[in-house]
Amino acid sequence: MTSYQFTPRGVCSRSITFDLDDGKVHNVAFMGGCNGNLKAIGKLIEGADAQHIIDTLEGNTCGPRPTSCTDQLTIALKQALAQQA
Fold first, then answer.
1. What residues contact residue 68 under an 8 Å CB cut-off, 6+ apart?
2. How does pLDDT run across 20-56, given as a tens digit for each residue?
């Protein structure tokens, strides 16, 4: 299992951490942002396939912003998968 930390841009959360194990996402945690919602997202995607998460959440926006914490997570996951390739 490999741990990753990502600094999101354009959103309220200041940091996203997660682990990847054989393409599966574990232990997602957001620092800052909408605490309850982001904890729930981490629980919902626990053990899910990283590519499925990317396909599902990429492009999600937050209010008038062109991105969201979940969209930023997809960027982080893409970078992590590319590092593992």
1. 11, 60, 61, 62
2. 999 999 999 999 999 999 999 999 999 999 999 999 9
Strand partners, 31: 15
Q: Check if the beta carbon of residue 53 is closer than 8 Å to that of residue 44.
A: no
> Cβ atoms within 10 A of the Cβ of 77, count?
25
CA 11/CA 71 separation, integer angstroms = 10
Measured CA distances, 73 to 38, 48 (Å): 11, 13
3-state secondary structure the chain: CEEEEECCCCCCCCEEEEEEECCEEEEEEEECCCHHHHHHHHHHHCCCEHHHHHHHHCCCCECCECCCHHHHHHHHHHHHHHHHC
